[in-house]
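REQUEST ID: PR-0412
SUBMITTED BY: lab tech R.K.
PRIORITY: routine
TASK: structure prediction, single protein chain
INPUT:
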Amino acid sequence: MITRSEFLSYFIAILFVLMMVSVSILLNNPEVIIPEIAALAIAFWVWRISGWMDRPWMIFVSLTGTAIIGFAINQLPLFYFGKLACTLLLMLTFMWLIKSNLSPELTTGLIAVVTDATHRIFLASVSTLSVILTLGIVLFGLNKKQKEKVEIEKKHMVVFLSLLVYGR
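STATUS: complete
OUTPUT:
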């Protein structure tokens, strides 16, 4: 049987996703829908996946930072592979600098290039939704219940960079 707390968690997470879709429909702009943030809402608020919630404000910084990187690179007059390669390289560097291991931020940055995001509403959406996501973690104290810490694996960064450099 589902507890009242679990039901409330599911309800709030699903309401959050529906709100994102509703705003997209009202504005007639699909760049408002960020699938990674919808998935993170379920992961954080419902399943309470540990390891990523120990620094809740870093969720906002990392998601917004990688979205800015992807959006900015997408505006440059580069060919598609060049945009993807530059975005990935800059995002991995950014993630390393802020010591982040939040894997969905990779897709938040790449989605700007893959979907050819051109409106600033994409950045506003990522920023606003990630603040709401972070506030949900802080206000419900979900970050205080975490015990394990996950360190960033340098070998994973090397693999990504190797694929980027030698994958041509």
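NOTES: DSSP finds seven helices and no strands in the chain.
REVIEWED BY: pending
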